[in-house]
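Quick one, T. Sequence first:
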Amino acid sequence: MPSRRANRIKLSWKRIECRRCHDARVVGAPCPTCDASPDPREADPNLQRRQRLARDALAILDRQPASQPGSRPSTDQWSPEEGFDPLVEWLEQFLPTLSAAIQDPSAAPRLLELVTNLVDFRDQLHASRWLRPQLPLWRTAATLVGHLTEVARCYLTACRAPTLLQAQAAEKAGQQALDAAGDEGQCLADERLERWQRISASDQVSDIVAALAVEAYRQAGTADLLVLEQDGARDFEQLLGTACPTGMGLQLRMMSLQAEVVLDEQRFRQIAHDAHAVLSQRPDRLRQLVQDQTLVDDIHDAVRRGYDAAVTAQAVLAVAHDDRRAIRAVLALAHELFEGPGKRYVAALLAATGRRSYQDLCCRDADALLQQASQQSSLVPLLDGLDLALRAARTPSRSRAWCSSTGSSPPWRRCRRCSSRLSSPQPGSVSRWSTRWTTATST
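Structure tokens:
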């Protein structure tokens, strides 16, 4: 994308002799020497034509997004995976086309078409669903479109300016917007797109994790683990306003990179800030929780279950030949994440902020845990993505009972860890279970 390059458009104003002081002045403007007012009948045909052209183009630029559901942009549907070449091409064409339209009236339709294309692209971004893992690229595109819109607005404002000084001020603002578009285009578009392509080059979860580590070192500009830790520690202190424990800087650096590339970086940092604010209110409960071996074992188990569920869903989606199988695979993944990592996460939040122990909470049903946590306003922002509807959407054909802490299931009649007695469901029943047991379903 062009950057730090002088871009000029050639403008001219008709000049006549002032009747009072006989100095030259611009038609339709007061005399700069004697301040004599212009004759209302004075006209500059070239300026009037430029003003009409700028007025029509700015009217298109200020167009509000279409509100009718059936209306669609005239441009082809764009996806972030296609890159940002359309925006680069637009910028390369805009100023030459504007200069041509200023000199030749026959070039005006092409200028209006070009402005319309930018507005259509902007409307398409506004109407599109910004979803992970391409969310950072959607935001990058929106940022660049905002800069290009400002470039167009400033140069069109210069075209309709009645005086040279006003035109120069507008053109200077346009050059600054152009420089900003070039700088951020290089930083946001090229680097972020290339980073996303490198990390998402493989469909295997293990390869993606390894690629994240490589990108973390590349982004930090070092292969030294300690330097990477120090870089992350500074970010930790800036984000949370407290000293960074040893090792957390590296973890934050890795998680931030993952959030930037395939998740939602803004949302990640907000949740990290909110979670720290909630959990640091009762440090004694938090200290007791992290020393609980049950939690440590469950976290390890949750990570394994989450990884296995992702790999399984990935394998099923790779061979799914219709939407029905794909949807079932996604629902199964959501159910597994809810019952595994999700349930343990909610239980840990309740244990850190309440009075009951983690072991006690883990024996409760996942639905009950989520409903209890949803009643605490401080925890609600930390529960996004845990949806009871998704858990219930996976309609079972048969059911079995299992211990929420250990995963034990029939033929054992008692949990191996807590020795609680198994309460089996009635045949075909999937509604309510013992409070110390969870329903697991399979199809």
